[in-house]
């Protein structure tokens, strides 16, 4: 597509040649208001008959100046803003942010807080993947799985509500630890949830994984080769579905992830089906991590002794964590004042979405929804 | 490849254009002149840094900076490369032909800082509307809707309390916030 010419003429047709025949080429606007874009995203599709030849995403509809606001807030005041980045994985967003500030300040976090952080982040990963699986089912016309996934997610939200008082935007992580200790009996409730959750995966399998319609919609759809995936900076399940064994919890361990035993699911068919399988498997691996963490959970403080006003030393840091969508990076420049001089978020879905046209090129227009769904975007994090 | 080796090779090849350079943990931190930035990036790609984590800008009021965070999938070294640009005419050659990931990052950097990336295939705003005036993340960008920083008199109060606490012999132990 001639990307220089913007805006692209909507609804006009031009003549092009494909396989020797003269065909009509058409531009179709998908979104910004579309149930399958999971937010406000506009895709400009260039179609050659039923085949997608190019796709240009238009983003920014949810831009809320996150980075500019961050430069005018103190380090503690930014935590609630990070919740709103990826509202399906607020715990993981908090986690990434506080880790980067701690790295800048050289803070040691109490053991118990480390464990609580990992437990909550992994529960959040399950919850996030459940929302993804449910809405992905909706995209593909399987309504039942949506209800099942949201039933389990509701239980995780209940657990989160018990620790933080919130159901979506927790702001539970603090620089130096977590806000509160867990309530009595929370560990038992968490274990009860895990015991309930593990047999649910075979239930989902019966609904979707073994469903021939589901398989046919995904297998061989939206493929991207591993070299291109790395070149585009894809991360998380997107890159692990390309046969690249890359998980920051294993390859660049942060917090206490090096203490747990878990597998990194990798599939090498590079298509939407592989992405589905990676996320399905990851939920089970997260359960393993939570179980080990609950077993080892030490007692003690949940918050290090911190000054009331945080003034990190002059310097800059780029810290990355593995969010449910991939590599979440925070680049923070400190000038020694109580607010960051520069605050930058490297959002995983932003990079994953930037390779969408590579995945869509040559696929059918009916598969666009499936491919977009398999990327697992959250526009709150892309637009920031 | 260890970070020391990376730094050694960079120093050998780009002696005169390499500014301050150090190794911090697993990370090589280097500053390089704008006109050699592209070549350094290409060389680092050859050294195996095939993953562009992040490309960001920074406004230092005297100059602008483009920061490349690179890593590799095969060895644990990382590179934190800073390129200094003139604030009036910030132009640098695009690296989107080395790492396609830079495509959207550079568009964002242009959008928010006004850095021009020479040779970029699709050079336009990405997050803001196309008719937006100004570059919001520059330090001199003004907008009356912006809420300035306030700590609600917190620091002043804390200083007063500290002064009081110093006067009294038995100060209350500080509870973590």
Describe this structure in words.
The complex is a heterodimer of chains A (384) and B (177). Chain A is 45% helix and 15% strand. Chain A is α+β, with helices and mostly antiparallel strands and 384 residues long. Chain A folds into 2 domains: 13-58, no CATH class; 66-383, Cytochrome-c3 Hydrogenase, chain B (Orthogonal Bundle), CATH 1.10.645.10. The model of chain A has no long low-confidence stretch (mean pLDDT 87). Chain B has a single domain, classed as Beta Polymerase, domain 2. Chain B is 27% helix and 26% strand. Chain B is built from 4 helices and 7 strands. A 5-stranded mixed β-sheet of chain B has the order 1-2-5-4-3, covered by helices on one side. A two-stranded parallel ribbon of chain B has the order 6-7. The chains are: A alpha+beta (384), B alpha/beta (177).
Fourth-tier CATH superfamily name of chain B: NADH:ubiquinone oxidoreductase Nqo5 subunit
What is the CATH first-level class name of chain B? Alpha Beta
What would you give as the CATH superfamily of the largest domain in chain A?
Cytochrome-c3 Hydrogenase, chain B
CATH top-level class of the largest domain in chain A: Mainly Alpha
Helix/strand-derived class of chain A? Answer: alpha+beta
**CATH fold naming of chain B:** Beta Polymerase, domain 2
- CATH arch. level architecture of chain B: 2-Layer Sandwich
Let me know the average pLDDT of chain B. Answer: 84
- Strand order of the biggest β-sheet of chain A: 1-2-3-4
**What is the β-strand count of chain A?**
9
Which stretches of chain B are poorly predicted, pLDDT < 50 over at least 5 residues?
A: none
Q: Please bin the fraction of helical residues of chain A.
A: 40-55%
Q: Give the number of helices of chain B.
A: 4
Tell the overall outline of chain B.
globular
């Amino acid at each position: 597509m001639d990307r220089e010419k913007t805006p692209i003429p909507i609804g006009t047709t031009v003549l092009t040649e494909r396989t020797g025949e003269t065909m009509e080429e058409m531009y179709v606007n998908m979104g910004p208001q579309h149930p399958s874009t999971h937010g406000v995203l506009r895709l400009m599709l260039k179609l050659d008959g039923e085949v997608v030849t190019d796709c240009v995403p238009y983003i920014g509809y949810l831009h809320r100046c996150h980075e500019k606001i961050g430069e005018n807030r103190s380090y503690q005041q930014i935590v609630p803003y990070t919740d709103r980045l990826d509202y399906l994985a607020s715990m993981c967003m908090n986690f990434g942010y506080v880790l980067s500030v701690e790295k800048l300040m050289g803070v040691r976090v109490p053991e118990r807080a480390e464990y609580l952080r990992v437990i909550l982040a992994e529960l959040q990963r399950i919850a996030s993947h459940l929302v993804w699986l449910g809405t992905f089912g909706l995209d593909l016309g399987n309504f039942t799985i949506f209800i099942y996934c949201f039933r389990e997610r509701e239980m995780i939200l209940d657990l989160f509500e018990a620790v933080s008082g919130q159901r979506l935007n927790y702001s539970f992580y603090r620089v130096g630890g977590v806000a509160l200790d867990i309530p009595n009996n929370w560990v038992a409730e968490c274990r009860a949830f895990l015991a309930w959750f593990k047999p649910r995966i075979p239930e989902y399998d019966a609904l979707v994984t073994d469903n021939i319609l589901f398989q046919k919609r995904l297998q061989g759809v939206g493929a991207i080769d591993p070299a291109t995936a790395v070149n585009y900076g894809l991360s998380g399940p997107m890159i692990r579905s390309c046969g690249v064994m890359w998980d920051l919890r294993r390859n660049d361990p942060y917090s206490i992830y090096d203490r747990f035993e878990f597998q990194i699911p990798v599939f090498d068919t590079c298509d939407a089906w592989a992405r589905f399988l990676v996320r399905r498997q990851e939920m089970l691996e997260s359960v393993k991590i939570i179980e080990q963490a609950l077993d080892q959970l030490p007692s003690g403080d949940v918050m290090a002794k911190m000054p009331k006003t945080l003034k990190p030393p002059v310097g800059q840091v780029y810290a990355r964590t593995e969010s449910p969508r991939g590599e979440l990076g925070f680049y923070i420049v400190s000038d020694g004042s109580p607010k960051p001089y520069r605050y930058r978020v490297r959002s995983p879905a932003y990079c994953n979405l930037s390779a969408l046209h590579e995945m869509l090129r040559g696929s059918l227009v009916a598969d666009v929804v499936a491919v977009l769904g398999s990327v697992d975007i959250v526009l709150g994090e892309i637009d920031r | 490849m260890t970070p020391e080796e990376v730094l050694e090779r960079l120093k050998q090849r780009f002696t005169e254009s390499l500014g301050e350079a150090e190794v911090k943990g697993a990370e090589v931190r280097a500053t390089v002149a704008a006109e050699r930035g592209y070549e350094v990036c290409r060389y680092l790609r050859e050294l195996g840094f095939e993953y562009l984590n992040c490309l960001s800008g920074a406004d230092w009021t005297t100059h602008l900076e483009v920061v490349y965070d690179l890593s590799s999938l095969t060895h644990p070294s990382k590179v934190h490369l800073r390129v200094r640009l003139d604030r009036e005419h910030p132009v640098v050659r695009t690296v989107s032909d080395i790492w396609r990931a830079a495509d959207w990052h550079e568009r964002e950097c242009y959008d928010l800082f006004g850095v021009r990336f020479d040779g970029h295939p699709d050079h336009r705003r990405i997050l803001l509307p196309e008719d937006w005036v100004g570059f919001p993340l520059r330090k001199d960008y003004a907008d009356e809707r912006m809420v300035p920083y306030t700590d609600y008199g917190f620091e002043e109060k804390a200083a007063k309390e500290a002064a009081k606490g110093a006067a009294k012999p038995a100060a209350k132990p500080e509870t973590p916030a």
